[in-house]
Each structure stands twice: as structure tokens, then as C-alpha cells.
Amino acid sequence: MKRIVLTGGGTAGHVTPNIALLPRLRELGYDVHYIGTYDGIERDLIETLGIPYHGISSGKLRRYFSLRNFTDPIRILKGFKEARSLMKVLNPAIVFSKGGFVTVPVVYAAKSRKIPVIIHESDMTPGLANKLAIRTAAKICCNFPETVGLLPEKKAILTGSPIRQELLSGNKINAQNFLSFTGDKPVILVAGGSLGAVSVNEAVRSALPELLKTYQVVHLCGKGKLDKALEGTTGYAQFEYIKEELKDIFALADLVVSRAGANAICELLALRKPNLLIPLPAKSSRGDQLLNAASFEHQGFSMVLNEDDMTTSVLVERINCLYEKRQDFIQNMQNSGQQNSIDAIIDLIEDLHL
User: Fold this and answer.
1) pTM score, two decimals?
2) CATH of 2-160+339-353, one of 1.10.760.10, 3.40.50.700, 3.30.300.30, 3.40.50.2000
């Protein structure tokens, strides 16, 4: 049996593209194993799917001063030793890496065993973990045409991001029943990412009295970020994270308010959902979400609101404007010619495996 190791972790965005590949990999007879951190979000997401999960030590690579910069290299070295032992035991034919700091020791361990690695970079510019891993890769998949020129020649392949196919088969009625929503008001889905977005959460909750006059709101607010004071509010439903019901909620949503993580916006494109992107600002990131959002805005797929410009009144105004112009955004997304990313990546895996 062919064996493949998938790796990626830290956020759901580093895991869900791997999950999207699973049905095809299983169809083709691959024995799939997953390497992630000991107790990251990826562990819960993968183990529920019945995939053998192997946890390793992981440290964060920072561009700023932190006392943990002195201890995390020890964790990374430990992770490399653990990953190398796993590569020896599992002996996979190939490794597919989605990114996140846990993947660095995995791809270097694969290189030490002469196991080919495919890396997927979702953002416009490679993150630090992928920058460190790029030289070990046989191929590098990416989402944006602009990214190809930033990667080593002959390694870069424009594939787009794998989208979980079940997201395309949601049922609106199931979502209405699950949320106890009515059919007489449009629905806004607010998604701040698997870890949540405090500023987005606060702005949406401040705007609720005005928004609920016109809309119903589903709020995915992140782990530990529920607001108990809002429990039982008519037309408002909040969750830390949604898994099984997400496809139905997407089907029901008329608009989406989201951060601009690459995987999230690629899902919105595939689902043709009019969206307002609130990218993570440069002061809190390396600026990748700003670039992602600018690209989607330029292509007519998204409306963008920078966090520094966000107030309650501006947020409500932008949402109302998006709803009025929603058909224009849907049309632009329908004309985008979304690539079949899963087939493109599976073809690369099969080519390297052979």
C-alpha cells in the first residue's frame, strides 16, 4: 500500500486543505498518516476522521524578541528528532506539508531520509515556516499567480487551495433548524478564524442591535470567546467553532464577514459567497492577509474593511452596501474559473510517488 504523511498545524487553515485531500487519497489506496503538534487544533480535527496521528514537539519561529526564543529552538530540535524517528518507522513514499511551525522539522526529517516533499503555500507571500522549508521541497503549490514569481523556478505550481467538497453540499433547512432562525431575514456568517478575532468579535457585538433589525447573525467567535450575556438573543447564534454543521450554515448564509486567511477566502470563492474581509493588520502580522484581501478586492470577489478604519457605524454601512451589491460579487466569482485544486495536487503527488 502507498503511504503518505500529511503535516500542518497551528490553525485550522493549516489543516483543512489536508482534510480536503483525504477522500481522493483514500480512493487511490493511500495509507494516510498525520504529523502535528502534541495538542494543537489539528489533533482534534484529524483524530475524529480516523487518521493515525503522531504528535511531535514544536516551537514557534518569531521575528520579534521573546524569552521563548531561547527555549523554542530546543523544542524544534526535539521535534526534528521525533519526526526523523517517525520517518524511519513509517517510511512514507511522500510528504505533503500545508505549513505552520510544526512542519519545519517534518520536512527536514523527510529530506534526511530522501523522501520527496510537496509544500502548499496559501498566502500571497510565503510564511516563515514555508520559507525555511522551501529548499527541501520537490514542488511548491500556491494560490495566487503573483506568488509563482516569488518561488524557485520550476518548483512553483499554481494549484489553488483544496476545498472540502462537503462544503458544497449544505442544506439551508437543516441550518435554519439547527440555529432556530426564521426564513424572513437574510443571514450573515461572521468567521474570525479558528482562534477567533477579538476586534472583529467586539465590533460585531457592538453592531448587533442595528444588524438584528435587518439580518440574522451566526457568529463563529473562536475558542474561549463566547459572550454569555448574549445567549438567547433572538436572531443571533454564537459558537466557538463549527464542524459538522458548517456546510449547512454556509448554504444558508447570504453574506460572510471574515478575516482574510487564504484558505478561508478560497472557500468563499468556491462557494460564491459575497464577503466583507477584515484582514489582520500589519501591526499584528506579517501583512499576508492585507495582500490576500487586496487581491480579492481587485478581482471583484470581496469588499474590504481595514481594521484601523472599523467602527460600529462603518461596519454596518459596509455590510448593508455588500448586501445591496451582492449579485455583482456573485457574478464576478462565478466568472473566476475556480481551478480544481484537489485534482492538480493529487496529480503532483502521484507523479512524484511514481
Assistant:
1) 0.78
2) 3.40.50.2000
The predicted structure's pLDDT at residue 71: 60
Helix residue spans in 272-337 (DSSP H) = 288-298, 312-324, 326-334
Q: For residue 323, report the phi and psi dihedrals to the nearest 5 degrees.
A: -65, -40
Whole-number Å distance between alpha carbons of 350 and 96: 12
Residue 295 annotated as binding site = no
Q: Using the structure block, give the residue that is written with the C-alpha cell 474559473.
A: 337
**Nearest Cα to Cα of residue 277 among 245, 318, 239, 241:** 318
The residues, any chain, with a CB within 8 Å of residue 202's CB and separated by 6 or more, are none
Q: Is 26 labeled as ligand-binding?
A: no
Residue 11 labelled as part of a binding site: yes
Q: pLDDT tens across 238-261, in order?
A: 999 888 899 999 999 999 999 998
Confidence label for 68 from pLDDT (cuts 50, 70 and 90)? low
Q: How is residue 287 written as a grid cell?
A: 501583512
Residue pair 113/88 in contact (Cβ under 8 Å)? The answer is yes
Cell numbers for 227? 459572550
Residue 262 known to bind ligand:
no
Residue 69 has pLDDT above 70, yes or no: no
